[in-house]
Each structure stands twice: as C-alpha cells, then as structure tokens.
Backbone:
C-alpha cells in the first residue's frame, strides 16, 4: 500500500512536471506572437511578421510536445487515482470536461489554420486564428486552475453518506476566492517564461553578431514583457495568492515560510536557511524581522502561527521540499525583477544592445523561469499534501485500489524513457530552428 | 438524465472513431502501401490539417466520461490500466511521427518516423478493437475468486493476457481469442476507412490500387464480422434480447450491413466520397449495434457475485448532470462551428496543402 501510493505520486509528479514545461511556454508565447502579429498589422513593418513567423516554428514544436504529454494527465486521474476520480468526478469532472470541450477544440481547430493558412487567409484572418489559439490556451489554463482551486479550497459541494462529493453550486466553482489569484499568478509566470525565452534567443543572436535586427527586437520585446509580468507575478497576484494560503491553509503557510515557532511581536521573513524538521529549527538562517507580518497583514506586529500551533497529523508531508520550492520560486522571482529592471533602464538609455554583461545574463537566464514556475507548482501541490481535497480527502485514500505498485513502476519507467526521448528530440529540433534563425522578408 | 448523457457520450465516441479512425487507417495504408515519397506525401496531406483536432475528440470523450459517469471512468481506467498506458504511448509515438518527420530532410530520419507513424496506427486500431471486445465480454468485477470478492464491487484489474487466451476463464486477460478477433475487425475496417479517406481527399496515384485493396479487404472484413456474430453467443448467451424487444433497433445492424455490402461496389463508384460514406456507415452501425446489444450495461460482470455496471449505477449526481447540459450545448455549437470552418477551409483535394513542411 505504501509502495502503491509512492509510485502513483512519483508518476503523477514526473509526468506533470515534464508536461508543464511546454504549456507554460505555449501560453506566454502565444500572447507574444499575437503581439508581433498585431504590431505588423498596425505598422506594416516586416520585421514584426518575421518575428511572428520565427516564433511560430518554436511554438508549433512546443505545442505538439504539450499535447502529447498532456493526454496522459487526463488519463491518469482514472488509471492511478481511481478512488479520487470516483469520489470527486462529479465536481472536478465538470471543469476538466469543459477544458476539453471549450479550449482543446478551439486550440486544435485553429492551430492548423494558424500554422499553414497565412497565404490562404490573408493577414487579418491570420491574426484572428492566432488570437483564437491564444484564447484557447489561456482558457485551458483557467479551467485547470479552477480544478486545482477546488482541490485547494473546496466550494459548492456536499458529501453524501457513501463519501461521494456532489456538486450543489456550479457558479461557486468559478467564484472560488482561490481561483483568480492563482490563475493570474500562473499566467504571469508563463509570460515570464516566454519573455526570457524570447530575450535569451535575442541576446544569443546579438552576442554572436547574427540576425542582429531580429535579436534587438527579441531582446527589447522580451525585456518589456518580462518587466511587466515579473512585477505582476509578485504584486499583486503573488501577494494575493500567499494571503489565501495564510488565511485558508495556515499550517502550509508556516511550513513554506519556514516558521517553526510562533513569535510574539511579529514574524520575520526568512531569506535563506535549511530546515531541520526533526529538531524543529532552521539552520544558517538569514532573516529580516517583522517583514512577513507586514506583508501578510500590513501590520508589523501581526501574529503568524508557527508549525508548533498545529497537530503533526495535518503537517504538510514534505516540509523541507515545500520550504525550498517556495523559496526557490521567490528567490528567482526577485532575481528576475532585478535583472529586468537593469535591462529596462539600459533599454531606456538606448544602451542595452551594447551592454554585454546584461546580454550574457539574459541569455543564461533561459532555464530559470522554467525552474521558478515548476517550483511554484511544487509549492502549491506539496502545500496541499497530505490532502487531495484540502482537509477532506487524504491522498492515500485516492489511489486506484487494484493497480499494483509493480504495474505503476513499470509505466513510470516507461514514461521516463519515453519523455527522455521526447526531451532530446525537442532540444535537438529547437536548437536547429534557433541556429537557422529568422528569415527576413525582402522589402518590396 | 443519465440516459441523455449516455447518448451524448456514445455519439461523441462514435464521432471520435469515425474521425480518428480514418487517421489510423491512413497510417495503416501508409505502412503497407506507400512506396514512393509522393504516395507518403499524399497520405499525410490528406490527414494533416485534421488529425490533431480529431484526437481532441478522444480527450473530450474522456472528459465527459469522467464528469458524467465518474464510477465507470474510475473503474475502467484503473482496471484496463496496462492497455490504456500502451494506447497513450502509441498515441505519443504516432503524433511525434507525424509532427517531426518533416523537420529534418534526411532519409533515415524520415524512415524512422514513417515507421513510428504506421506501426503505432496499426497497433492503435488493434487495441481499440480489443477494447470494444473487452467491454462486450465483460470483466471480473470485484475480482471474485471462488465466490469471494477481493475488492469493492466495481473495481477490477486485467493483465494483458492469461495463459488460456479464453474469454471464459475466471481470471480474464485483455487479449483473448474473442477480443483479438474484434481487434482484427478494428484493423481491417479502419484500414478500409482510411483508404477511402485518402481516395476522397487526394488525387494520388495510389487511388486505383487502394480501390482494389478495399475490395479485397472487404472480404476479410465480412468473414470476420460473420465469425464474430456466430461466436457472439459464447460470451453473451442472449445477444439479441434488446433487438427482439424493440424491433426498430434493427436499423443499426442494417446500417452496418449497408456499409459493408456497399463497399463491394467500390471499384465502380464514380464519386470519390462514396466509399468513405459507406465505411462510415459500417463503423457507425457497428458501434451502435454493439452498444445497443448490451444496454443498459456499460461493463458486464462475468461473475455471479457482483452486478454489471449499468448506465444507472455509475452516473454522477442529478444536479451536476443537469447543469452540465447548459455548458455542453454551448460548447457543442462552438465545436460545430470550428469543424465547419476547418472542413470548409480544407475542402476538396489536399495534395498541395504542404503539411509538415516547415
């Protein structure tokens, strides 16, 4: 039984972590491609359309990876989490079925037209198909996070005698106070990823003296989108999401912030330190007094409950993992804002394209937004453990009763092998596209 | 309410089989009959703009199953764990075969992805046929041994096969001679369906040959269908009860045979879409007849301890099902519009659509 739970969790964690590397770029990049197309429609300057065309190639490859790794996610609710599906399907099935019906059909129908139909349809319709693909991908994010929000903060339900969760208020799924902050926070995270990807490839071209015109446009656009999104991801959306955790999941809040003991007179914010869960303390701590209280409640002396206030049976399963995920996300987010501010100032002073060290930094930033987004999701998911439905259904009670751990390990190994292949192919082909570079239209 | 959702679900499933069926079929034809680069191009062009959206129907079917019949979703997805995972892996291989082939101009690269696409298509057709066989045959619900259930009455787990390959043993496998036979029906009927689609959507040099292939395969299909009908009573002693009670239901088997027999005339059709129409009729009638014959069961029990899963004991609660109708109707209208746009833009022959060229 322990083994079954462990492998079921590993398989879900592995497949969702790998999967979400792709949609985060899909959602952010579709917005930026729509922006390039829109600029082209307004200005008729070819470089914008060239940029759109170049990024569509990366987008198509990335989208395909997102689709093929996404189908196993929907299947796994039933295959590995059958009991959870049986008990809550009447509720989370709503939002998941809506995702299929409203967003996947929209995306897939117009993606083909967007990728192959530019000549066939003309520029305005082409822009429209791009916009619809963008809309579909964001709708998908919205409905997934509606599902996620219900698991974090269940609303609009009642529980029958046989343990089944039954929906009694459809509207509540969408007015869930957890939903909007989480959705906007997540979407800004995905725009950060696409901003850094675009800026990073641009910086690569500039530093190599190749495709310099495109390089400048990519760096400029990436920095501007990045500056806006990395600000919004922290404030107000991140702040808002964290306050939700403090209010509705105080034990999770204490664990992710690393607060072992309640402190009178206000809680400090921990910047660095390694949790020692057994001895309930934090080693090598660097902290700023009272800031956490202020950020959470706007009062310097507000009390924040430490882990000591809660029973161990409701502790998050992996306190250290939760603490690190959260601190990696916040730490990287702070670095993003810092770097992008410098880049933004240099851009304003028209010196960005010659400030080599900033270009180098932008180029090497490429993997970090992926890490930050992943760490953010780990914070949300580890923060909810040991629950599938917060405070109502334990993770251990949600697994498929008849699927043995040996079978799950078999498929987990299969997924690891298959996804390693997919990852290699993606990198290989993406490098090929980047290496070839954007094609520039001839001016007539 | 359950019944409405069941009809919706089965309609969606049928649409999925008809649409993605021609993709699988095209893959099978690609594997065995496409020799030149031109033939291959014609085949991938014929399905290129559609296959991705067609596959979304599978996800949508899964979603609606999850939401409207959560118990059936939980029971069958965990019970058919291994074949479903293999279907997932095959879908992944098939998709990347199609998407990645054109990314690099190199014979070896193209050959690898051609085979990935073709073999995955063939195995998927086989697996979906086997899946249908499993649903008709039923499973050991509750995993009963000597009258003692090992699990809750709606859970089970099937290995891929057992040593006897018999649909009668107490501990069944996914693959036995009966389900394998339906698997072959799946392969042959979808190969015919795919060939018809290629004829319909291209002017390929392959088309005259494909008509012969369809004609010959149709004999195999007829033989398989007749054999499975003759052996059907072995797994279900009274397979015609619903048809005897409600004689109008006979329309579904009639549709099936119209499609099947019509296809023998394939060589003399003067309109390219006619063949596709008949293979569509065959699939539609065949699926509907099968579903009707076991109704109201959705997954029969093979033991005497636990009852079969039926439309009425696996559904979600009333309120959720009612409220779902509102968004579903809106979504269905939108999907209809998307499909109209898609098939309108890519109407006619698609030899020059340039799919996969980046």
Residues:
């Amino acid at each position: 039984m322990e083994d079954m739970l462990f492998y079921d969790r590993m398989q879900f964690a592995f497949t969702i972590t790998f999967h979400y590397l792709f949609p985060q770029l899909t959602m952010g990049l579709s917005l930026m491609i729509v922006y390039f197309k829109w600029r082209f429609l307004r200005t008729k300057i070819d470089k914008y359309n060239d940029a759109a065309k170049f990024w569509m190639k990366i987008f198509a490859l990335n989208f395909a990876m997102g689709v093929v790794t996404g189908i196993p996610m929907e299947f796994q609710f039933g295959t590995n989490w059958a009991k959870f599906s049986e008990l809550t399907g009447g509720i989370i099935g709503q939002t998941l079925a809506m995702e299929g019906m409203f967003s996947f059909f929209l995306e897939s129908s117009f993606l083909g037209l967007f990728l192959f139909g530019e000549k066939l349809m003309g520029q305005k319709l082409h822009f429209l198909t791009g916009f619809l693909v963008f809309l579909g991908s964001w709708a998908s994010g919205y409905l997934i996070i509606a599902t996620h929000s219900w698991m974090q903060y269940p609303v609009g339900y009642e529980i029958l005698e046989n343990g089944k969760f039954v929906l009694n208020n459809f509207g509540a799924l969408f007015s869930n106070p957890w939903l909007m902050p989480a959705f906007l926070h997540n979407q800004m995270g995905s725009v950060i990823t696409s901003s850094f990807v675009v800026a990073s490839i641009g910086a690569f071209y500039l530093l190599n003296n190749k495709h310099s015109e495109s390089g400048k446009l990519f760096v400029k656009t990436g920095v501007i989108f990045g500056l806006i999104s990395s600000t919004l991801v922290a404030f107000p959306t991140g702040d808002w999401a964290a306050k939700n955790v403090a209010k509705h999941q105080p034990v999770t809040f204490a664990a992710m912030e690393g607060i072992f003991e309640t402190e009178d007179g206000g809680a400090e914010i921990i910047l660095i330190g390694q949790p020692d869960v057994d001895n309930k303390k934090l080693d090598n701590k660097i902290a700023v007094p009272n800031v956490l209280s202020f950020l959470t409640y706007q009062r310097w002396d507000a009390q924040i409950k430490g882990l000591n206030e809660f029973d161990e049976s409701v502790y998050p399963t992996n306190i250290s993992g939760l603490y690190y995920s959260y601190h990696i996300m916040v730490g990287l987010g702070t670095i993003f804002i810092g770097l992008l501010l410098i880049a933004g100032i240099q851009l304003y002073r028209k010196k960005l394209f010659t400030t080599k060290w900033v270009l180098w930094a932008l180029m090497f930033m490429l993997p970090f937004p992926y890490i930050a987004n992943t760490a953010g999701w780990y914070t949300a998911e580890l923060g909810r453990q040991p629950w599938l439905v917060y405070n109502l259904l334990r993770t251990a009670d949600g697994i498929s009763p008849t699927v043995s751990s040996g079978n799950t390990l078999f498929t987990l190994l299969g997924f690891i092998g298959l996804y390693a292949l997919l990852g290699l192919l993606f990198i290989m082909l993406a490098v090929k596209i980047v290496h070839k570079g954007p094609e520039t239209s001839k001016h007539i | 309410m359950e019944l409405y959702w069941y009809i919706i679900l089965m309609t969606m499933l049928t649409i999925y089989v008809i649409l993605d069926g021609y993709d699988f079929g095209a893959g099978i034809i690609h594997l065995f009959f496409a020799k030149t680069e031109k033939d291959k191009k014609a085949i991938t062009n014929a399905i290129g703009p559609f296959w991705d959206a067609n596959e979304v129907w599978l996800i949508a079917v899964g979603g609606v199953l999850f939401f409207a019949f959560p118990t059936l979703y939980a029971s069958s997805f965990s019970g058919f764990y291994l074949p479903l995972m293999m279907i997932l892996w095959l879908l992944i291989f098939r998709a990347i075969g199609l998407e990645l082939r054109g990314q690099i101009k190199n014979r070896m690269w193209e050959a690898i992805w051609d085979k990935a696409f073709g073999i995955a298509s063939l195995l998927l057709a086989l697996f979906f046929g086997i899946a249908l066989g499993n649903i008709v045959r039923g499973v050991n619900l509750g995993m009963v041994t000597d009258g003692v259930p090992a699990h809750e009455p709606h859970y089970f787990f099937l290995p891929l096969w057992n040593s006897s390959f018999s649909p009668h043993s107490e501990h069944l496998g996914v693959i036995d001679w009966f389900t394998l036979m339906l698997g072959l029906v799946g392969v042959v009927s979808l190969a015919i369906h795919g060939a018809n689609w290629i004829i319909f959507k291209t002017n390929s040099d392959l088309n005259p040959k494909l008509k012969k292939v369809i004609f010959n395969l149709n004999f195999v299909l007829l033989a398989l269908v007749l054999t499975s009908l003759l052996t059907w009573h072995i797994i279900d002693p009274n397979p015609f009860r619903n048809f005897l009670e409600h004689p109008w239901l006979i329309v579904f088997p009639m549709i099936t045979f119209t499609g099947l027999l019509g296809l023998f005339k394939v060589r003399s059709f003067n309109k390219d879409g006619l063949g596709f129409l008949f293979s569509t009729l065959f699939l539609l009638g065949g699926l509907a007849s099968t579903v009707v014959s076991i109704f109201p069961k959705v997954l029969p029990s093979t033991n005497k301890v636990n009852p079969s899963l039926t439309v009425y004991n696996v559904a979600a609660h009333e309120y959720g099902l009612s409220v779902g109708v509102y968004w579903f109707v809106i979504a269905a209208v939108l999907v209809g519009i998307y499909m109209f746009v898609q098939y309108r833009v890519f109407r006619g022959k698609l030899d020059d659509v340039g799919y996969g060229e980046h």
